[in-house]
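RETRY 2/3 - previous attempt timed out on the joint model. Re-submitting the same 330-residue input unchanged.
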Amino acid sequence: MLIPFTAPYDLRGTLCGGQAFRWRDEGDGWFCGVIFGNTVRMRRVDEGIEFMSAPDDEAFLAQPIADYLRLDDDMEEVYAALSEDEHLADAVRQHRGLRVLRQEPWECLVSFICSANNNIPRITANVEDMAANYGESLLRHRLPPHDDGEANSEATCERRAFPTPRMLVHAGEQALRDLKLGFRAPNVIAAAAGIADGDGPDLYALREADFDDALAELVKLRGVADKVANCVMLFSLDKPQAFPVDVWIVKAMRDWYPDAPAPPPLNSNGKKASPTEKQKREMRQWAHERFGTHAGYANQYMFHHKRWMGTAQAPHTSLLPRVAGTADDR
DNA sequence: TTCCAGGTCCGGC
DNA sequence: GCCGGACCTGGA
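RETRY 2/3 succeeded.
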């Protein structure tokens, strides 16, 4: 099925650039992922976004997918605003079509709880492993291979939905440790328990909340502080002014904006300095004053430019999921 | 061996 | 409030 759409859209950079973790590059422009309880395969064509999905009807999924991809964002306005800045003007030229996604909040929250002191290939593995072991099976609704795909493309789309909070609570902390989540395992379980029993935030309701209220709710969760909360707000909760400050954003701000409130490269002990929560708030404030509601897009282009320039294409890791409780001697 | 990765928490000032 | 160290894991 086709979603008509003619503006620039960089599917690879957007789906596989580090804001979502379940999209796989299948080659020939196709990407396969699991969203809204469906296996979805999509690619960019001249007339728009072509996709196929299962088990739900494609006509039913077209609008949710358009929302997920944020096809309705006015990128010309965003580009005009960002291009007043010489560094971002360059980043926009090089990565035109890169977008922020509107992900499902629960999966996004867990993904970024897993991002703490971690790297993208391992976050990807953690998220996929949780789905493979504890998510609802979509096997009965296997997606047919696309016409010009590889022979094994059918197998790569035998995926499971991301597990619900209740499913992860039932699995338990040790199960997630067995999947190598490490110290993040209890944080994921605590968030799952809070949301499953109603003590935690209603994530979808936070889409309607204002920025400060949503932030305050999110940081109540164990394992969620300024950076993770801003990622969840930007990538899933309709907070375009969110500005997650990570090592790459710090690098960009040091390199590009000497007067911006970034921490020095080294602290007083000569060790690598990481920004304090206060400095992150100051950096976000600086970004908001400079870029307004487009701070989130500024952030995404800064991150993408610093993180992926000079590397090969955005990585996608092995699809072989780790199986809990087997072949591992603790 | 040491450092690092889309950080957060905790204890000591 | 504001640091500085610890933290699972695994690749470089």
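Residues 116-119, 121-122, 177, 180-185, 267-269, 271, 276-278 of chain A lie near DNA strand C (CB under 10 Å from a C1'). Closing ticket.
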